[in-house]
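Table S2 (text version). Query chain:
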Amino acid sequence: MPNQTQTSFPSVDQNSDYIEAALFNTNDLKKRSISFQGRKGVVLYLESITDTELIERNVIIPFSRNQDKDLSELFTTLTFSLETELNQGIQGLLEGSCLYFLEGMSEFYVLLTPAKYERSISEPENEGVIRGPHNGFIEQMKVNLYLIRKQIASPNLKVRYFTLGKTVPKQVSLVYMENIANPELVKIVEARIQKISLDWILSTGFIQELTEDNPFSIFPQLINTERPDHTSNYLLDGYVAILLDGDPTALIVPASFFSFYRTPDDYNNRWMIASFVRFIRLIGFVTAFQLPALYIATVSFHSNVLPLQLFFTIQGSLTRVPFPPLIEAMLLELIFELLREAGLRLPSRVGQTIGIVGGLVIGDAIVKAGLVSYTMIIVVALTAISSFLIPSNEMSSAIRFMRFPLMIAASLFGYIGISFGLTLIFIHLCKLESFGQPYFRPLSPLNSQGLKDTFVRFPIWSIRKRTSNPKTNK
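Corresponding structure-token output:
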């Protein structure tokens, strides 16, 4: 689309030629000549994104039957606007509107006639709950805002629109509670969104990468969710949500490390059960990235800590393996990652079969071939299961990546290497921030009130109304 501003021409042919050239004579641009009261007129629309039946019923037929009426009276059943800039008309075409030009008229009509191919509202596959609402966001931002407002029927819920993308403009919504969210936090989020300068924004992943505090950190610094109830809970707790038209994911800021281990079911179940499940989830986190390193360090340097009978059992299984424990673990982890990726890319029915059969067949064959030990199979299997306990896919990926440098450190220095690696990770978590908010809160800085909803969940009546109102230091 041309960058310079061009007002409409008095000639219908000039206007249509200009628009055809701006759209590079695309084949889905349709033109229909419709005269009105003896003056030449034309309707332009992109048939791929407009409702052609709506145009026929509410534009074409009224013209043929009401030549004696005023022009503006013909479009009472449609939302329309009068424009003079042809670039505005081109943008309207790209959003599903149709244009009507009339000979000698300095303005033209932009009639809202978009086609609607909306996906039905359904529960997100990656965020299912046992108890609670079973609906999720879709690709239409207006529908997503509707779902949020159905959850929060409050006049304090505020929505601000931004447009990102120079070549392909996309609308972005900033959603927050006016009386709850920290104004400084809102200003920081607005400033970072407005600094984004790209030709196109295809998904919220672009926004996430361009707005996070530390793009070189392996840990995710924005929470993403497809659940309206989860988003609403965060909004009522003082957080800010970012929505992108065409993407069913909401970004929640600021994030904390422990927020990636909370699920809606934690608050839908009774506090004792929720606390037990969350504690198991955090144990799974520790197991997911430390168990292989601990096994490698133990069998390589510190086998004397094992009970005598277990020591002989493990040593017996290692006698036929020609590789050191690090290579053995790396090989199995690589096989598991290959099976995982293959299962994700294949259709669901075939993917499950590949995961089960492939794991059993390859696991049994690789042990019989003497490439790995039975003990290592158990360690890697427990590690894989533990990684699936993490609700956030981004955090799960970060944990899976983190165990590889820990395994290398364990193979070189044993328990000392693991301790050094964990110290570096802990220092990084304490230094990391998300939109000016400490990432490792409420442990660093320590907040006793926030601990009531961290490792376990205390009863709701003992937790204050907003357990972690996201103040900012910047």
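Notes on Table S2: The chain is about 45% helix and 10% strand. The chain has a mean pLDDT of 86.
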